[in-house]
Please model this.
Amino acid sequence: MTPHVTVVLLNWKNSDDTLACLAQLMQLQYANITIVVVDNHSADGSEERISDAFPSVALIRSSHNRGFAGGVNLGIQYALAQQTTYVLLLNSDVTFSADLVTELIAEAQKHPDLGILSPIIYTSRSQRRIWMYGFRVNKHGIQVVGQDRIEHEHPQALNAITGCAMLIPASTLRRIGLLDEHFFFYGEDIDYGLRVCAARLTVRLAPMAWVEHAPHGATQKRSGTRQFFLARSRMLLIRKYWPQFQPLIVVLSEARETLRIFFASARYADLRAIAGYSYGLWSGLVE
Model:
């Protein structure tokens, strides 16, 4: 029997992207699928646009902005109540082929110990340019793997993958729970990967499945907001998993990353980014 897959899209004031993504999802070659859109209290007419254009799609309306983790958790809970086999978290600003879900499920079924699975994520598939493969977390800190690189041999040892496109077996969700809503935005995917590893499940890439990702969502338009959440989530992760790190190395690594952000922002006189990152560091340290 073909496993049932529930695709969860999160919408927050980006209904153009969501509608475009839904149009692609309608072309998928995979039959046993449910599509859920969670509107994160956009209050801009998004709900009406989505329900009018795609009345067959399940639409969940949040009473407030719950962040990424809180928003997709509503969709995950809906999926689990429907006894789905897999949940696919998908950013709405991606493009993909009609066999995306088919290839993901084919790869997932090869691995009984699967915890989470990601397609290959490109910024430009024609140029074979990778957006990122995922993350490694070790005593040296949190490392992004393959970011903005030309595609080469796919890495095997990953601790986490990005929530941009993440296939999660329902068995994983029932075993280790939902995403941690304390992160709000950024970091919840790395945290989930580390929880998957702690449960002795695997983090994998599906080499035949792909999406193309061109980030331009709401936080991308406000660099100060984005830098705030990036800094905050890194500090929350380091605090949560502090025993896994070598203290001096991780402190020096984070200091270097902070200086990199500051110099890059200062180069473009982006004071909002500097202020946002600084406030994010403080927030992540004291919460």
